[in-house]
Amino acid sequence: MSEFGFHTSGEEIVKKYEPEVRGKTVLITGPSESGLGGQTAVFLAAAKPKLLVLAGRTESKIQPIISKIKESNPGVETVFLHLDLASLTSIRAAASRFNQMVERLDILINNAGIMAIKDYTKSVDGIEMQFAVNHVGHFLFSNLIMERILAAGKGARIINLASLAYLSGGINYDDCNFQNGKAYNPWLAYAQSKTANILFTSSLVDKLKSKSVAIFAVHPGWVETKLLAAVTPDMFEDGVRIAEAALDEGEELPTAALQPKSLAVGTSTILWAALDPSLSDTAHSGAMLSDCAIVENIKPHATGKENEDRLWSLSEKLVGQQFTY
User: Fold this and answer.
1) SS (H, E, C) the chain
2) Are strands 25-29 and 107-110 parallel, antiparallel or unpaired?
3) Which of 169, 157, 213, 160 is nearest to 195 (CA)?
4) Residue 71 has pLDDT above 90, yes or no
5) What is the reported pTM?
6) Which residue is catalytic, options 17, 120, 190, 325?
7) What is the pLDDT of residue 280?
């Protein structure tokens, strides 16, 4: 059982596992200021990684984090990588640049995400925006840089930020675009993308089982970040109603789904997943984590080889490329 829990700060995790950070190369998507990714980068920098690659769409939103790290830990190399997860062209270009930049990647944290977009929106490639950014973009990017992750050998980690919001519903494999918006609901679309994060995690574990890479899906908690900026009180209540309606009779929403956390505390499970040596055991790989513990009893729509295979096939179709290991 972990010595950490709901109230643990990410700073505590990094201090505990400082040797697991030193000399490592880490890539974080969506590490903007006042967000989980940015705070995760700041905490990691204190333990002297070799290189922090901060990947995002807008450099001006990430530059404050780079500046803060350079001020507090000037010896840590920190670079910006342009990555727009809503554009397959941008993702391919970013992956190509990254693969030329490094020979190995020790830790990949797929942190970037969007949440509950009120009005139906599609990416430039015609994919519902939450599914595009939260899942499809990370699916393509992760696979395109996988050789660098595998080159890191035993101890490499992939962390996919998921959410207990997956409870609200699964993936419509035949129509992930909600009848081109006619059947769109922002919370069901968010749940679809978060279910995909969980299934992508377990699917990768199966495909990379001989490669010694530990992979986890993480629910960071309910953290007041810019992710919630467009969520009105009415929208939030609607989201809770949808989630509760999806539960089994007599079942209640987990405390971790609704109890608020600070930004510093919200990073703890991300960092625990990335650094705790005990989690490198393949028996744990593929788990969903919350409050620095393994989440038990994942719903059937987010588990199973059939769901994993259907999602993988759909994702390959959407990106126009197949990946085998």
Assistant:
1) CCCCCCCCCHHHHHHHCHHHCCCCEEEEECCCCCCHHHHHHHHHHCCCCCEEEEEECCHHHHHHHHHHHHHHCCCCEEEEEECCCCCHHHHHHHHHHHHHHCCCCCEEEECCCCCCCCCCCECCCCCEHHHHHHHHHHHHHHHHCHHHHHHCCCCCEEEEECCHHHHHCCCCCCCCCCHHHCCCCHHHHHHHHHHHHHHHHHHHHHHCCCCCCEEEEEECCEECCHHHCCCCHHHHHHHHHHHHHHCCCCCCCCHHHHCEECHHHHCHHHHHHHHCHHHHCCCCCCCEEECCEECCCCCHHHCCHHHHHHHHHHHHHHHCCCCCC
2) parallel
3) 169
4) yes
5) 0.97
6) 190
7) 80
pLDDT at 1 over 70: no
pLDDT score recorded for residue 82: 98
Confidence of residue 233 (pLDDT cuts 50, 70, 90): confident
325 is catalytic: no
Task: Give 280: exposed, middle or buried? Use CB within 10 Å, 0-12, 13-18, 19+.
Answer: middle
| pLDDT of 2 above 80 | no
First-to-final CA distance of the chain: 32
32-49: pLDDT as tens digits: 998 999 999 999 999 999
